[in-house]
């Protein structure tokens, strides 16, 4: 896996990342740090990446178990250390999974498997942050 980051000098503190798969991601800093607030902060992208990683796991685990999944949302909240480096110290992930005839048991199991075994992003973040999660199951209309 690889990624190249380029500073976009004429855009304040904007950074352009090009991933090994050829995708582009823009990040920016807060105005008080010289940024222009044109894109997410780097730490927000890290948080989003962790959410995407675990959501991917949950959907895949449920689909492999032949559950009728039609939606998955992960609402994340994070707290950071006050001193540099301002690592994440607490993360809470609230999963809202929608499906036809979907029970809470398999969803909770999929979330737990993601955290315990499959999600490399939350495994890394778990070294500095206390990670908690909750599950909500919605029936598809």
From TrEMBL:
A family per Pfam: OsmC
UniProt xrefs under SUPFAM superfamilies: OsmC-like
InterPro entries named in the record: KH_dom-like_a/b, OsmC/Ohr_fam, OsmC/Ohrsf
Protein name, per record: OsmC family protein
